[in-house]
Amino acid sequence: MHPLESKICTVIATSGLPLSGREVVVGVSGGPDSMALLYVLASLRCRLHMALYPVYVDHGLRPEETGTEIALVRETARELGLACEVARVDTAALLRRRRLSPEQAARELRYRALNQVADRLGDGVICVGHSADDQAEEILIRLLRGSGRSGLSGMRPVSGRVVRPLLGVTRQEIMAYLGDLNVAFCQDSSNLDPRFLRNRVRHELLPFLEERFDPGIRKALLKTAASLAEDESLLETLTLDAWQRLVRREEAAEPGREAVWFLDRAGFRALPAALQRRLVEHLAWQIGSRARYAHIVAVVEAAVGGVTGSELHLSRGLRVAVERDLVRFSYPLGKGPWRGRLADKA
Fold first, then answer.
1. 155 and 18, same domain (yes or no)
2. By the 8 A CB rule, do 17 and 165 touch?
């Protein structure tokens, strides 16, 4: 067994990556990271009793290159005794409907396609080839965009049904592995396009930081992310505990109406400010509201010191009503914009 394959086998066993005995959808673009991922998982499939399903997602953005990539992925899968599926998505159509960057649109459609395959398999998980270098780049990107603690903790080895076995493997290790096994791969020309922020971070910012400030900047970023991830895990546990103690849901009396949520004000006041914000953010997502920072702060202030009878009007018709002992979250007229006070609709 190659040292990299042995390393990943140990990571899977010691980190509890949910791959053993599973149906595993492998996102394979034909690039070096995903090709290495496919070969590593193929080498471990018997040992870990995995069934592998390589999937190439054609975003419709590079027709002059995708034919070569599809042919390579299909041939590689065939050599490994696997059947490759090609999923085609219309990124251009999504860009016309929504204000997204091409990167965001392609990512959304890619994961939607991979999830559809995993759903078809029943209990499938999705493996993608993000590496340690991708993690360092992602942390810098999130820092530039003003992310908080959660964002700066980086990508997780397991996020829902998405698993990233190579997250602790450097690009140098991946290239050495491909060379040792004489594995062919393709280079995506869009990875050199300076219009994309990730490419500017990869080819300009990180090399500049390594040359002018710290040659070990990538390791430092990964260390910081790992430390923040541990803190984030603790905060998630504390938030869940507060949720179970302080939040309750009451089903609507009429069919088709939205449930009403209640937050205990006394218990909420006793929480540290960081947990207050996290609890409100979690509640907002649960009830289908956009968890904007300004909204979160406004709800926290209302829950802590708001006057009984006061209200907040948030997006899509959400009303937050301050009562003596509780804060009530409801959609009195359903999810849609409307004017007026909740008290006037009673």
1. yes
2. yes
Positions in the chain whose pLDDT score sits under 70: 255-256, 316, 333-346
CATH number, residue 304:
3.30.465.60
Is residue 245, in this structure, part of any structural domain at all? no
**Given phi > 0 = left and psi -120 to 50 = alpha, else beta, which region is 82?**
beta
Helix (H, G, I), strand (E, B) or coil at 336: coil
Pair (76, 210) in one structural domain: yes
Burial 58-97 (b: 16+ CB within 10 A, else e): bbebeeeebeebbebbbebbeebebebbebebebeebbee
- Sequence-separated (6 or more) residues with CB below 8 Å from residue 152: 139, 142, 143, 224, 225, 228
Domain encompassing residue 29: 3-229
**Using the 8-state DSSP alphabet, how is residue 335 labeled?**
S
19 and 135 co-located in one domain: yes
pLDDT score recorded for residue 146? 85
pLDDT tens column, 25-46: 999 999 999 999 999 999 999 9
Q: Are residues 218 and 273 in the same domain?
A: no
Count how many domains the chain has: 2
SS3 8: helix
The CA distance from 28 to 46, in Å, is 20
Q: Residue 35 is encoded by which pair of tokens?
A: 């090709």
Residue 25 within any structural domain of the chain:
yes
CA 295 to chain centre: 22
261 vs 278: CA distance, rounded Å = 16
DSSP 100-148: --HHHHHHHHHHHHHHHHHHHHSS-EEE----HHHHHHHHHHHHHTT--
- The verdict on residue 240 lying in a domain is no
CATH number at residue 90: 3.40.50.620
What tens digit of pLDDT does each residue of 1-10 get?
Answer: 999 999 999 9
Strands of 162-163's sheet, edge to edge? 85-88, 51-58, 23-27, 125-127, 162-163, 158-159
* DSSP β-ladder status, 260-264 and 326-330: antiparallel
Q: What is the dihedral of CA 303, 291, 199, 75, to 10 degrees?
A: 130
